[in-house]
Design goal:
Length: 247
């Protein structure tokens, strides 16, 4: 999967009403419909930020499934269709996916629940989620470029459906951007060494799994993109054993 070159990140705004409910509903959609559509053809589950939201990269016979606002979009070659997001069963029928309570897209999944129940998706909240993914992609691609300039190759940036976060990794360290989860109700950026034991002392490591930079801190930054990138680069320097030197 090839990600676009990093662009200046959009400015983040305070989260809209209904963000948590929308995020959780779209996570279920990603786990049970969007990712399985790609997996059925390619065996791969990774997603990516797309225009206004998230979706698959092009797969198979030039096909793409993506979410933008309150709609699900499907493109096959030059043919494009869209449908409002109403329920998992309706989305699966639109995407040509067979629903399963074990979609094979990772562990720690949200429950399938009633596939005919309405998905609580607010278009403004879905846009806020899309803005977060656009911001996150820009920052993570900038980090990859900084690491590459130091001779370090980081994995491609992917949106993992089970945790619904964007991330990449290098030498046993995860770098990512979560839209919120059981650890934090609001989005956050994180650095997570696979082995968190024996991390260097200091106030940087402020989470059980490593370090986080919260959404409120980002909102208060004059240059949000630079604040996020500086945090990730500092984490890279510390976690990769470079005595705190940023790549």
């Amino acid at each position: 999967m090839t990600n676009p070159a990093p662009n200046p990140p959009p400015r983040l705004e305070p989260l809209t009403e209904g963000f948590t409910e929308t995020r959780d509903a779209l996570r279920r959609l990603a786990v049970y419909v969007v990712s399985p559509a790609r997996k059925a053809v390619t065996g791969r589950i990774g997603l990516q930020a797309t225009a206004g939201g998230f979706g698959t990269p092009p797969f198979g016979d030039d096909e793409q499934l993506r979410v933008e606002g309150g709609s699900l979009h499907r493109r096959r070659g030059t043919t494009a269709d869209s449908a409002p997001i109403t329920s998992l069963s309706a989305a699966a029928a639109f995407a040509g996916v067979t629903l399963s309570d074990d979609p094979g897209v990772g562990s720690d999944l949200p429950g399938l629940g009633d596939p005919d129940a309405p998905l609580g998706v607010s278009a403004p909240a879905a846009k806020a989620l899309g803005d977060w993914y656009a911001f996150s992609t820009s920052v993570l691609e900038a980090l990859r470029a900084a690491l590459a300039a130091s001779g370090l190759e980081c994995s491609e940036v992917q949106l993992w459906p089970e945790h619904f976060d964007l991330g990449c990794n290098i030498e046993g360290v995860n770098f990512g951007c979560s839209p919120g989860d059981g650890f934090s109700a609001e989005p956050y950026i994180y650095v997570g060494p696979w082995n968190s034991e024996g991390l260097p002392d200091g106030d940087f490591w402020n989470a059980p799994f490593g370090a986080v930079l919260g959404y409120k801190e980002l909102l208060g930054a004059e240059d949000q993109g630079e604040a996020a990138l500086s945090f990730l680069r500092r984490g890279a320097g510390l976690a990769l054993g470079r005595a705190g030197e940023e790549p």
